[in-house]
Amino acid sequence: MTTKSSMAALLLVACASEPLPEEPRAYAGGWPVAACDLTPSGTQVGDVIPDFTGLDQFGDEVHLHDFCDKHVLLTTGAFWCRPCLDLAERLESLYREYQDRGLFVVTLMYEDYGGLPPDLEDLQQWADRFDLTTPVLADPFGAIGNQLITHDTSIVHTENFLTPGMVLHTKDDPTLADADVLDSLLPSSSEAASR
Predict the structure, then answer these.
(1) Looking at residue 109, which CATH number applies to its domain?
(2) What phi and psi, each to the nearest 5 degrees, are found at residue 112?
(3) Nearest to 122 by CA among 189, 39, 59
(4) Residue of 123, 113, 144, 125 whose CA lies nearest to 56
(5) Backbone phi, then psi, for 61, in 5-degree steps?
(6) Tens digits of per-residue pLDDT, 124-141?
(7) What is the domain range of residue 96?
(8) pTM across the whole model
(9) Residue 8 lies in a domain
């Protein structure tokens, strides 16, 4: 057997064997990673939304579906947006208040102060400015966030709520980060503890 044919046979055997299991991801932010077998169905209420990845404030490519066992408050915005700034000021306290009930927060940022896609330094500054301990992801040009708006305007600020399994429960609702609304959406403390 020639060297080329030996290599081809070896490659064929390697490809025919069982795939190697993926190593679990570990994020620099220390976020928990869950394994779920999900089949995305769309971006409408009731759909399992597609997985996406985005650069976070630590330089990791974060996968949304890694948080599939959580209730996710998915916010979108821009650095210059007043409602986005107001939300960011209270987002960490909301997360800390409700994390024991299964809440996780992911923030998508599509523009920096100059109207450009945010880079790693921008994401770090946003997270530091508001003491955010959850992922702040770059969403250049609103590629992800634009799929989650319900009105015919350009994306600025949206709040979306995903239930475990990445099912889109509530889409583009600016009241989701309100404590009373989160109370009604999340399981009680006793229900969350029993899971």
Answers:
(1) 3.40.30.10
(2) -85, -170
(3) 59
(4) 123
(5) -90, 110
(6) 999 999 999 999 999 998
(7) 50-188
(8) 0.84
(9) no
